[in-house]
Design a protein that fits this description.
heterodimer; A: about 425 residues; alpha+beta; 17 strands; about 55% helix; B: about 250 residues; alpha/beta; Rossmann fold; 5-stranded antiparallel sheet; 10 strands
């Protein structure tokens, strides 16, 4: 054990450079694993968001755009779907259920979704899980709202609180529907999907708060009070999109084609899974680039380590000659230096993995809140273990470079000790 | 590491017990490389228990001679008998094992691992030699024997316990190196100008202490130097020029 102790003492003797080397490797490993974590986290998050919905119908647009604005609340709709088209689709015999979605308003940066109570039973996420109410229940009154878990946490709302909806979807809005406040009727359990960051109201309520509006602005001099609006006909004229469930999956393509060829209005129907695949295809190039960059960073860190060991080699020649004089074989000397590279890399890999999990643990609430990505804190998968093992192996091999040089020097030096 | 220590080393010659500790016969060695340096030694002998001074100016091949003697390099031809074993016939690894079993080596300077404690520096050879380790253990615990040896070579107990090798004076460093060469009682002490960095007084004291300990262990001492003034401390003086021919630059 004395040789190992000496190797460690030798490293501690150069602890500043050794520590910097370990840190460089640690950060590169953290980056490599982190990119992978974010990648799989993002995919999982997206894939878990919608389940059990066969088709999503919206105004004619790209399938990705439709998927993003209807399910993920990213971006905006290009156009609306008329209420008549919605009813036509709903009337089809193959359709088991249909849920309307009406977007465009917000509350403190959280999107407001107009829908009906069917939404709470038919919207499924994470392999068919249904939404649960943490407190309260679905909206019963016209001006009732059901809020997602994140909305409740971030704004500190409880059932019965009054909220004001703003027009438009920015986090700071100047035009508000102040005349028609809502009451929180229910708070949903955390789902890990965009539902957590959504305020749900009834379709009629959406119609009601816009009844005295035209072209996105209040009509001057015309104001209809909250009480008056209750007596009016609040059947919507248009919605943003609709989620459709079919009685039989076999009908999916048929209905999709029928909707896409709908004569009265240009519509698009998409299958969420197919649209997601399209999304992966789109971003896989970027993912590959990210992975390549993080791999290069690891290589750079290992090169840094080799440089570090090489620069200390002259000082180490003395060490080599002394060890040779007391019976160390050149192989031992070679092994010592290679072990040094391996040990530094191993320390870096361990530190990097710890940093990553610590970082994940700390950043998770923020990432979840800001980007809606719930990153899983689970142990490294098999392929990640293999990657880590390969980095350590590469460290040993990289350590051989200076080791072979030291070996040559120690052979050439013979019995002479040089400074 | 264990196989290094349990392997039988130098067992071939032990029953024969030849009179000389070291005998060179028709040895020739050429350093590899673009400007080769060759050394030929026709005949040289070191008796058991003898203290021999090998004199030669810089560049006369002293280091090459010591490298051959200690088995760091193997001769191109000829025999180097050490304690009855022909070093030329041993493999590289076997020479490394043989060296630590039978040789204690002191360099001119930079003898110590600067980051290790004095005792660790002294105990270094025992890591590679079971024989020397067992011999040392017969006298007491390793740390105690190392400390006793360091004290016998004139280092204070306080210095031994407190100081890292890097903070010692050159004279103190050479004493630690001598202790490392002597521990476990190897048969041959090889010293490469160990006193060149010391002043006259320290030099004399160092050699007296070294010889007292080597005599107590029954070891032969071979020391190379360019300083003829050291001759009085030794049993015999040999000039390298008289026993060896050095050729430079021409490869044959």
């Amino acid at each position: 054990m004395m040789i190992v102790r000496l190797a460690l003492q030798s490293l501690f003797n150069r602890w500043v450079t050794a520590l910097l080397t370990v840190l460089a490797i640690a950060f590169s490993v953290m980056l490599l694993l982190g990119v992978e974590k974010v990648r799989t986290g993002a995919r999982q998050s997206f894939a878990d968001t919608i389940s059990g919905t066969d088709l999503i119908v919206g105004a004619r647009s790209g399938s990705l755009n439709l998927l993003l604005y209807s399910v993920f609340r990213i971006g905006n709709a290009t156009n609306n779907v008329t209420w008549k088209s919605y009813q036509d689709i709903a009337k089809r015999p193959e359709v088991s259920w249909i849920v309307p979605l009406s977007l465009g308003d917000s509350h403190h940066g959280f999107r407001v979704l107009g829908t009906n109570t069917d939404y709470f039973t038919h919207y499924k996420f994470r392999h068919g899980q249904s939404m649960q109410f943490a407190s309260g229940g679905p909206f019963a009154d016209l001006f009732d709202a059901v809020i997602g878990a994140d909305v409740a946490t971030a704004l500190g709302y409880k059932v019965g609180d009054k909220i004001i909806v703003a027009h438009g979807v920015g986090s700071i809005s100047f035009i508000k529907h102040e005349d028609k406040p809502f009451r929180v009727s229910g708070i949903l359990e955390k789902t890990g999907t965009p539902v957590d960051r959504t305020v749900h109201v009834s379709l009629k309520a959406i119609e009601a708060i816009h009844i005295d509006w035209q072209n996105g602005a209040p009509i001057p001099g015309q104001s209809i009070s909250a009480d008056e609006v209750r007596k009016m006909d609040l059947t919507p004229t248009a919605i943003t999109a609709a989620m459709v469930g079919l009685k039989s999956k076999l009908a999916t393509f048929k209905i999709q084609r029928a909707i896409n060829n709908y004569q009265e209005e240009p519509l698009s129907a998409i299958m969420p899974g197919v649209a997601l695949q399209e999304l992966w295809g789109l971003i896989s190039t970027a993912e590959t680039a990210l992975s390549a960059v993080s791999a290069m960073v690891v290589v750079t860190a290992l090169l840094g380590m080799v440089t570090m060991i090489l620069t200390t080699l002259n000082e180490r020649r003395r060490e080599m000659a002394i060890l040779r004089s007391v019976g160390a074989t050149p192989a031992t000397v070679l092994g010592l230096l290679a072990a040094e590279g391996g040990l530094l890399t191993l320390a870096g890999v361990i530190a990097g993995t710890i940093f990553l999990y610590a970082g994940l643990y700390l950043a998770r609430p923020y990432i979840d809140h800001t980007y809606g990505l719930s990153l899983a804190i689970d142990p490294p998968r098999a392929d990640e273990w293999i990657k880590l093992a390969m980095i350590v192996a590469a460290g040993f091999i990289a350590g051989l470079l200076p080791a072979i040089r030291a070996y040559r020097l120690s052979l050439a030096d013979g019995m002479t000790v040089r400074t | 590491m264990t196989d290094l220590m349990t392997a039988p080393v130098g067992s071939r010659g032990e029953g024969v017990c030849p009179p000389d500790a070291v005998a060179f016969t028709n040895v020739r060695y050429t350093w590899p490389g673009p400007s080769p340096f060759a050394l030929s030694v026709a005949s040289f002998a070191l008796a058991r228990g003898e203290k021999l001074l090998l004199l030669g100016p810089s560049g006369s091949g002293k280091s090459t001679f010591l490298s051959l003697l200690a088995g760091i390099v193997a001769p191109d031809r000829g025999r180097i008998d050490v304690l009855g074993t022909d070093m030329a016939e041993l493999s590289g690894a076997a020479r490394d094992r043989f060296r630590v079993e039978h040789f204690g080596i002191i360099f001119q300077m930079f003898n110590l691992l600067p980051y290790a404690s004095l005792v660790d520096n002294v105990l270094l050879p025992l890591r590679f030699s079971r024989t020397r380790r067992d011999r040392t253990l017969a006298e007491g615990s390793l740390d105690a024997v190392a400390a006793r040896l360091l004290q016998a070579l004139g280092l204070d107990r306080t210095v031994i316990d407190a100081v890292r090798a890097a903070s010692l004076s050159v004279g103190q460093q050479q004493r630690v190196a001598a202790a490392r060469a002597l521990i476990g009682a190897p048969q041959i002490i090889v010293a490469d100008e160990p006193t060149s960095a010391l002043d006259r007084n320290t030099e004399g004291a160092f050699l007296k202490l070294l010889f007292a300990q080597s005599t107590a262990a029954g070891a032969s001492v071979i020391m190379v130097s360019h300083d003829e003034g050291l001759a009085t401390y030794f049993d015999r003086v040999v000039r390298l020029d008289d026993i060896a021919v050095a050729t430079r630059g021409a490869r044959r």
